[in-house]
TrEMBL record:
<keyword id="KW-0378">Hydrolase</keyword>
<dbReference type="GO" id="GO:0016787">
    <property type="term" value="F:hydrolase activity"/>
</dbReference>
<dbReference type="InterPro" id="IPR050266">
    <property type="entry name" value="AB_hydrolase_sf"/>
</dbReference>
<feature type="domain" description="AB hydrolase-1">
    <location>
        <begin position="22"/>
        <end position="258"/>
    </location>
</feature>
<dbReference type="Pfam" id="PF00561">
    <property type="entry name" value="Abhydrolase_1"/>
</dbReference>
<dbReference type="InterPro" id="IPR000073">
    <property type="entry name" value="AB_hydrolase_1"/>
</dbReference>
<dbReference type="GO" id="GO:0016020">
    <property type="term" value="C:membrane"/>
</dbReference>
<dbReference type="InterPro" id="IPR029058">
    <property type="entry name" value="AB_hydrolase_fold"/>
</dbReference>
<protein>
    <submittedName>
        <fullName>Pimeloyl-ACP methyl ester carboxylesterase</fullName>
    </submittedName>
</protein>
Length: 293
């Protein structure tokens, strides 16, 4: 088994496959390194692909101290894996919690990114929803502590932005739920309290978004209601961003619609590698239909 060690002594399990430009996948809260298997199989034909489990997710270490979990640490852990592999720059793909980490790399460490894919990012990000989001996150942490990973995972994965996956692919959804049932309770609770609950709102990051010049693609499902407005916010403020909305789709973009996800990224990378992905033309931001206002 292969591990990268962080600067605070945490071992992060990773797998890699393929050759070429490096492409690293950063998973969401309800998943782990295994959730990127459809992308690892497809993109390792063309890229050097890396997937890893965040701290708190096996086979990575599971610190019991909540202070060892944070949004900044989640960002740094991606870079720790790249550093261990002696990778200076990579294409970075993140979903949900991983999407937040990817965005933060774009803001704080753009020199490490060849491109950014920010998918399913934004739940709880609206400023007016902050208090309610904090209460919901705390309730989820208690859910895992009270019921354990198996029953807690069953309740967590059947949320309103996950039922789309269940309806489309019952077998894939069952596999997803079973994988989450194997997550350690301490890792789930600490990730919720340290990373999810304490992360800054996307609305607090607008100034940082405006500095991003790295090619960026934002993906959201049209039935992932908590992420629709945040996706528009990022599109409007990241000069290099494109936005794709998957139809009749929920939150778990890469495994709910793996073929669409892979083809969307393929087209994005074709444009990036050919030098055809450009910053937004400022003329498109003029007000009025004809741009006279």
């Amino acid at each position: 088994m292969a591990f990268a060690k962080t600067d605070d002594g945490v071992n992060l399990y990773y797998e890699e496959s393929g050759s070429g430009q490096p492409l690293i996948f950063v998973h969401e809260f309800a998943a782990d390194y295994r959730s990127w298997e459809p992308q690892m199989r497809f993109f390792s034909r063309y890229f050097r692909c890396i997937t890893f489990s965040a701290r708190g997710y096996l086979p990575s270490d599971v610190p019991t101290d909540t202070t060892m979990y944070s949004q900044e640490r989640a960002m740094k852990d991606v870079l720790a894996v790249l550093d261990h592999l002696q990778i200076e720059k990579a294409h970075i793909v993140g979903l949900s919690m991983g999407g937040f980490a990817t965005l933060h790399i774009g803001i704080h460490h753009p020199e490490r990114a060849l491109s950014l894919v920010i998918a399913g990012c934004g739940y709880g990000a609206q400023p007016e929803k902050k208090t309610g989001f904090h209460a919901e996150v705390e309730a989820a942490a208690k859910l895992f502590e009270d019921l354990g990973s198996v029953e807690g995972g069953k309740k967590y994965t059947i949320g309103p932005t996950r039922v789309q996956f269940q309806n489309k692919d019952p077998r894939g959804f069952a596999e997803f739920v079973n994988a989450m049932s194997e997550h350690p309770v301490a890792g789930s609770a600490n990730t919720l309290r340290g990373v999810q609950k304490m992360r800054p709102s996307l609305w607090e990051l607008i100034d940082g978004m405006k500095t991003i010049q790295v090619p960026a693609l934002i993906i959201t499902g049209d039935e992932d209601d908590p992420c629709l407005e945040p996706a528009l916010l990022m599109k409007r403020n990241i000069p290099s961003a494109g936005l794709v909305v998957f139809p009749n789709a929920g939150h778990t973009n890469n495994i709910e619609d793996p073929d669409l996800f892979n083809s969307t990224l393929s087209e994005f990378y074709l444009k990036v590698l050919s030098g055809r992905w450009s910053l937004r033309d400022p003329r498109s931001q003029a007000t009025g239909i004809l741009g006279f206002k």
